[in-house]
């Protein structure tokens, strides 16, 4: 995997994180949980914008996640939260999403040729962010 592909994977992972957090925030009632998710959304947004800027500096643009993936994420969150919108259930849902993000990013890093240290550092920042989110969310379980 080259720099462009890795940057697109980073951007898409951050975009999916933003999508998941946004879908959940629309349905929760706890201000404490909403505040935590807002912070996580901001972190994902910064990483997404950093990846986008690095792509633009290389003459490329972000390949966005598909509208189908966005819709499926939103609908899945809505259905799951109708059943249970307690803070512990929200945390469990979000931890699952973050764990999927960690697993995908670890696989991506294994195939990345690590051509540019700034791309590697951004990927590691996303990985650290996902793990930090899991740690924060565990306090709600």
* Oligomerization state: single chain
Q: How does the helix and strand content classify structurally?
A: mainly alpha
Termini separation comes to: 37 Å
Number of strands: 0
What's the architecture in CATH terms?
Up-down Bundle
How would a crystallographer describe the biggest sheet? none
Helix content: over 70%
Number of helices: 5
Number of domains: 1
Remind me, CATH topology? Ferritin
CATH superfamily: Ferritin, core subunit, four-helix bundle
**Name of the top-level CATH class:** Mainly Alpha
Strand content: under 5%
User: What form results from the Cα inertia axes?
Assistant: elongated
Secondary-structure element sequence? HHHHH
Outline the low-pLDDT stretches. none
Radius of gyration: 15 Å
Mean residue pLDDT: 96
In short:
With 141 residues, this protein is mostly helical. Helix content is 81%, strand content 0%.
Write up this protein:
With 141 residues, the protein is mainly alpha-helical. The protein has one domain (3-138): Ferritin (Up-down Bundle). The protein has helices at 3-25, 31-57, 67-83, 87-111, 117-138. The protein is elongated. The mean pLDDT is 96.
